Each structure stands twice: as structure tokens, then as C-alpha cells.
Amino acid sequence: MIDFKKARFIVSAPTLKEKPADGLPSILFCGRSNVGKSTIINNLCGQRLAFSSKKPGKTKLLNYFLIDDSFYLVDSPGYGSTQYATLTTINFAKMMEDYVKEPSLKAVVLLLDLRHMPGKDDQAFIRYLQRCGVPLIYVLTKCDQMNQKELNEARKIAEKIGITDYVISRGDIRSLDSLKGKIQSALR
Ligand SMILES: Nc1nc2c(ncn2[C@@H]2O[C@H](COP(=O)(O)OP(=O)(O)OP(=O)(O)O)[C@@H](O)[C@H]2O)c(=O)[nH]1
Ligand SMILES: [Mg+2]
Predict the structure, then answer these.
(1) CB distance 88 to ligand 1 below 6 Å
(2) Residue 2 maps to a domain
(3) Contacts of 167 by beta carbon, 8 Å cutoff, 6+ apart
(4) pLDDT in tens, 48-82
(5) Is 172 touching ligand 1 by the criterion CB < 6 Å?
(6) What CATH number is attached to the domain comprising 42?
(7) Is the CB of 38 within 6 Å of ligand 1?
(8) Which candidate in 13, 36, 56, 156 could, as Cys together with 18 as Cys, close a disulfide (CB 3.0–4.6 Å)?
């Protein structure tokens, strides 16, 4: 069993050149700005390691958090055609091109807020990762803010774009355990 609570910040990397050189496996968290990437990393670790904010565009670099001395959870800046995506100091597309070639990348955790239809950027990103053969773990975030009708709607949208296996994230223990299980499997 992985001890997610044994977590510490290691480095903020502007490009993959600055990532830790130990070759340990990494799990990369991606999604549009404000979807909840930093928050879910904090929830997984049970501590406030990653900076989250009400304002989009908070995370600006690749932030490496070492978990249980064995692998990294990597927080990333939001992508997409939002004004906030341009606030980041990294070139997201170029970073991903490099990252998918990294043998250390075990999975991408893709966060989607399906109160809105996924944007073209989300869909292009999903197709890209599928083509590259990177294992994808889908998380539907902010489900705690949805009523049953909205949740059903979100499920329908997910199905429509071919997402059948996903974690419904409400920030509760059950959804976090489910995500931990998927991360653990990806690391095997
Ligand atoms: N209700 C609810 N709010 C959430 C959830 N996850 C994140 N938030 C809120 O959404 C806002 C953005 O969260 P962040 O974790 O900073 O989002 P991010 O994806 O890291 O954003 P960037 O770093 O800007 O790309 C914060 O105000 C969080 O408290 C969730 O599951 N439920
Ligand atoms: Mg963030």
C-alpha cells in the first residue's frame, strides 16, 4: 500500500530538463485552469502542498511532489484556449510532446468539469494521449456542486465522448480512495 500522506514538495520545473533526475515514475495531473488539479493533489496527500486558488491560472510550472519515496505526483498549469493558459511560463504543448516520450510517465490523471461540455482543447488532448498510448485516468471534478440531474447530465456527456471509466470526485474519502486505487494500478 502506498502511503500518500508521506509526501513532500521537491521541485518546480519550467521544462522537463529541470525535473528530478532520479527516474522515479510520475503521475501527471492535467486539465483546464481552475478544474481542481492542485486541490485534488492536496486531498490525496491530506496536506496543503500544492497552491490552489479561486482564481484560474494559479499553477505556473510543473510541480513535483514525492510520494512515499517511490513516485511523483506532478501538478501542471491549466491548458486550453483560456486567457489563463497564456499566463503560464511553460509551453504546455511542447512540454507534453516531451513528456509522452518519458518512460517515467505512468499515467495522466485528466480532470474534467462536466458541468460544461469538454472544450475542443480537452477533446484534442484526450485524442493525443490516446494516440501516444499514455494511460488515462479520468476524474470528473466538482461533483459535490452538482445535483442529481446535473450529475446524470455529466455522465451522459462523458459517455458521448467515449469516457466510461472515471472517478466521480466530490472531495470525499470514497472518491479519493478510488483515485488512489487507479494510481496504484498505473504504477504496477
Ligand atoms: N466544490 C468544489 N470545489 C473545488 C473542487 N476542486 C477544486 N475546487 C475549487 O476550485 C478552485 C480551483 O482549484 P485549483 O485546485 O486551484 O485548480 P487548478 O486546476 O489547480 O487551477 P490552475 O492551477 O489555475 O490550473 C479552488 O477555489 C478550489 O477550492 C471540488 O471538487 N469541489
Ligand atoms: Mg493548480
Answers:
(1) no
(2) no
(3) 137, 138, 139, 140, 175, 178, 179, 182
(4) 999 999 988 889 899 999 999 999 999 999 886 55
(5) no
(6) 3.40.50.300
(7) yes
(8) 13
